[in-house]
Amino acid sequence: MSQNSTMLARETKGDRLMNSLRNLVLALAILPAFALVTSLPARADFCIQLNGGPFSGDIGFFRFRGKMPTVAGHIVTLRGRAAGLDPVFGTAVVAKDGSYVELGATFFIDADEGQIDVTFAPPNSSTGSGYGDYGAYGTGSSVDAAIVSCGLEPVNTMDPMRRRVRH
């Protein structure tokens, strides 16, 4: 074996050792970040169930991203799902004096538009009341609202798209 080939073999073993050491240091550096990310709580959502008029069961269930605001003067944009699948968006506003929070939203369930306007007093209350309109325009009614577990969300899934068989 020539001296050059022996030197190349040593460099290869040294390179392998350095690569292994570099990988170990990288893994040890990433491990705390991974532990931190996995220990953080999941995004919190809040859900409300309305009862009254056309609102009951699935049609009265609304899930919103984030948390209901409770701090005086706070205004929060709301986005979420109505009846488990359909879009809902709106705003929640806490009164300047902090005495109540009012939630207003527009939603679409089965291509029919609706609106809700619900007040929770005080802001950390789990029950409230308000007004809702769904279906035929101008047919609103009073509703009762309760903040409920999001685990009660209706499971509405769309049928998977089917391929057409061409003849």
Question: Care to give the gist of this entry?
Answer:
The protein is α+β, with helices and mostly antiparallel strands and 167 residues long. It has one helix at 3-39; strands spanning 45-51, 61-65, 75-82, 86-94, 101-109, 112-120, 127-134, 141-148.
Helix-strand blueprint:
Elements lengths: L2 H37 L5 E7 L9 E5 L9 E8 L3 E9 L6 E9 L2 E9 L6 E8 L6 E8 L19
Antiparallel strand pairs: 1-2, 1-8, 2-3, 3-4, 4-5, 5-6, 6-7, 7-8
Q: Fraction of residues in helices? A: 10-25%
Measured by DSSP, the beta-strand proportion falls in 35-45%
Report the biggest beta sheet as strand number plus sense, adding barrel if it closes: 8 strands, antiparallel, barrel
In spatial order, strands of the major sheet run 1-2-3-4-5-6-7-8
Helical run tally: 1
Structural class of the secondary elements?
A: alpha+beta
Span between N and C termini? 70 Å
- Average pLDDT taken over every residue: 81
Order of helices and strands: HEEEEEEEE
> How many domains?
2
Mass-distribution shape: elongated
Rg from alpha-carbon coordinates: 28 Å
The residue ranges in which pLDDT falls below 50 over 5 or more consecutive positions are 36-41
Q: Count of DSSP E strands?
A: 8
